[in-house]
Amino acid sequence: MSIFDFLYMAIPVVFLIASVLIAVKAVSRGRSRKRTLLMQLASFAFVFAVCMICPFAASAATGEAASSGADGMAYIGAAAATGISCIGGGIAVGNAAPAAIGATSEDPKAFGKAIIFVALGEGIALYGMLISIMILSKIG
């Protein structure tokens, strides 16, 4: 591992940690939380863009095939499919489950109908995982 590989991995981490520390100080000084959150998202997007562009630029400059870059994008796509669908499923179940419990406590016959809505929310996460498996099966 060369020093450039180490720097390539360390610089984004250091930048994001510094961004978090600056955000914490800004909130403690009374700056708007919304503005601080937007700055955090902007800094994350910037670091993400730099980390995505640098390998493609390096492979184009050296003339190497960018097959590993395509594999990396497939891994990112699979992770995004699973992660975003799990977040959506968690939000759906978090809203549907208390309503199902309340409906069941009022009328025990409503349990069957109520549990279907909870299962539909969990299905979203399963669909995301299925898409991830399909993406990863194309790579290997």
List keywords for this structure.
single chain; 140 residues; mainly alpha; flat
Characterize the structure shown:
With 140 residues, the protein is an all-alpha fold. The chain has four helices and no strands. The protein has helices at residues 3-28, 33-62, 67-106, 111-139. α3 runs antiparallel to α4 (111-139). The model has no long low-confidence stretch (mean pLDDT 83).
SSE blueprint:
Elements: H1 3-28, H2 33-62, H3 67-106, H4 111-139
Helix pairs in contact: 1-2, 3-4
Whole-number average pLDDT?
83
Number of strands: 0
If you compute it from the alpha carbons, what radius of gyration comes out, rounded to the nearest whole angstrom?
22 Å
Poorly predicted regions are none
Strand content: under 5%
- The SSE string, one letter per element, is HHHH
Structural class: mainly alpha
What's the overall geometry?
flat
First-residue to last-residue Cα separation: 26 Å
Largest sheet: none
Share of helical residues: over 70%
* Total of helices: 4
Q: Quick gist of this model?
A:
This protein is mostly helical and 140 residues long. 89% of the residues lie in helices and 0% in strands.
